[in-house]
Design brief:
By secondary structure, the chain is of the alpha/beta class. The chain has one domain: Aldolase class I (TIM Barrel). It contains eleven helices and ten strands. The protein has an eight-stranded parallel barrel, surrounded by eight helices. Strand 4, helix 3 and strand 5 form a beta-alpha-beta unit. Helix 4 packs across helix 5 and helix 8 packs parallel to helix 10. The longest helix has 18 residues. About 55% of the residues are buried. The protein binds ligand PBG and zinc ion.
Length: about 325
Amino acid sequence: MNRVELHPGCGHETLRAWQADGPPAADRLVWPLFVTDRDDACEPIAAMPGQHRWGVGRLREALDGPVRNGLRAVLVFGVPGGAKDGRGSGADSPGSPAVRALAALREAYPGLLLIADVCLCAYTDHGHCGILQSDGTVDNEASVTRLAAVAAAYAAAGAHVVAPSDMMDNRVAAIRAALKTAGCGGTAILSYAAKFASCFYGPFRDAAQSRPAFGDRRAYQLPPAGRRLALRAVLRDVDEGADLVMVKPGGPYLDIVREVRDAVRVPVLAYQVSGEYAMLHHAAAAGAFDLRTAVLESLDGLHRAGAGAVITYFAPQALGWVR
Ligand code: PBG
Ligand code: ZN
């Protein structure tokens, strides 16, 4: 029996807007937000000029302007300052910056769609996205159980959407079950479904302090040339109940965005990742082109390929540009 549900994907005004296709617009932009556990922080991220790690006490400073300019969605990443361990206990501890930020944002901005990134890599001492076995490979079952608990905690804290970025097998089904058990059955799941093992995440790993201590993520993220494997990943996640799916990175994978858009009926998001942000920023700073023109062209490309919404660090600036 197919138990896929439709209600979580249309429970919020922004999600309802994303069910229809449309050109780049302010309500189709998602801003990734890094939240640290130092409440009064506004730390510049060196690898991503113009982006900051924000303390929970300064979120209004970060968001009042963008929300006034039409920002409709944020993607929250917690950046813990404290001790890390093998199971990423800090991800859903009551003091976790993600948990506290979600609660604070829910209160401060009632209409804003809150998407919570769900992963363990910023919270584990080894920096991998799941729980490891003694030989250093991922323990998929233990990881999925843990990720589902973290997702339920973020939903309970106020996330409208939980977005697993870990790439463990079959975590969407486990998260759906955990959400129901926690009484959060209306929370939507945005799966990082076609997430490739990409060098374009480099600046992010500095921002989130989530660089693996050893090895890399190629045993669980997709091989960059693996077009058919990416399609299988997306179809599997939709089958497990993903309400929205993501292709990541965006620009180097426009063919995948288009193919996914044609293959599934859920909204497709594209993530213009940290390395794409850095490339555009530095090229414009070096005089290669005008930043505004280049960013708008990159957004046109992602939407032309089939993205219903785009996650981009340029969101605060682009809100004015797309209008
Ligand atoms: C963590 C995560 C990563 C990104 C989003 N969530 C990094 C990674 O997988 O190593 C990348 C985002 C970006 O580069 O902007 N699982
Ligand atoms: Zn991760």
